[in-house]
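User: Show me a protein chain along with its predicted structure.
Assistant: Here is one chain, sequence first, then structure tokens.
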Amino acid sequence: MIENSSVPAAGDVSKPSSGLYLGLISGTSADGIDAALVRFQAGAEPTRCELVLGRTYAWNEALRERLVALGQGGDARSLEELGTLDIQVAEAFADAARALIDEAGVSAGDVRAIGSHGQTVRHRPAGARYDGQHPFTWQIGDGAVIAERSGIATVADFRRRDVAAGGHGAPLMPAFHAALLHSPDQDRAALNLGGIANFTLLPARGEVRGFDTGPANCLMDAWALRHLGQAFDADGAFAAQGQIDTALLTRLLDEPWFAQPPPKSTGREQFQLAWVESRLRGGERPQDVQASLLELSAITIADALRAHQPATKRVLVCGGGVRNRALLDRLAAQLPGVVVESTAAFGLDPDFVEAMGFAWLARQTVAGLPGNLPSVTGARGLRVLGTVHPAA
């Protein structure tokens, strides 16, 4: 069923498929472009899939700095700059796709489609701050350029259709998580620790839900960059040197966003260094701030799970935060009796689960099948997501 495309506009995606799809994503932290070449079972629901090859490709540092600044609420200097960034991101994504298929030893013609998330520069599902209305989400990285440079049909702009249907456009991974990680025997949760933390709640019986919980790594990464000159706090070592500042932590936890009910989503425009600085009183030791930011992530994640699926028995973790041992330890301490482990235990490389998910979303779009879950995003109904750009 999934292999028979009902998307008539893209002739090259209707040819016989090898079952290979390629997913591309650069997340909230913009710490690299994750690329995953994925083989799905031909002609079957994707309850299993194979990661053929996954790689992370570095951004040009000047481009990365500009993207992070925009993601944290900065404005483009001009329409000319924003248009240029759109193409630069697309070219970087296309280069990543070509490098991946070259290393995998496959040709562009072997890949049915690319699913490209793009780079988020604004996410306003509750309405634009410009006028308090008009919800939108914006990921740059022109899919037409990716298709042209890679020679592979490309599906892009996945989030906009869900927002147009009244949803948050995020998170989009729960449908993929449900297909591969659900168990009929226990309540589980899939936890992505990217820049932002988000849950997919997978009850043994009942409706799949999902939502962002707040910061995972984005605040710790920004603080480590400022005080260590490093893009992230390797294994939580910087945080481990400090002590939790309980007064600061209380001020951080007082953020009203944490108390909002799902569906909800967020990004760097909400949780950024300026947000942290507004809660400092001066004189705090940098390592104590880092320890407090780590505890903030652990507490808000655990609180969200207790509030919305208290019978959870197993949390399956993916994303860059899976390598932060201190964060995982604090999360486990906050969730006694719950098994907290990497998705690797279930055959999914934690570094590439999201990229694999966008390969899956491309597969859904090519098949004319929905990629969102209204129970997660709040959309008015199921929607086929994204725009298909045929291969050159």
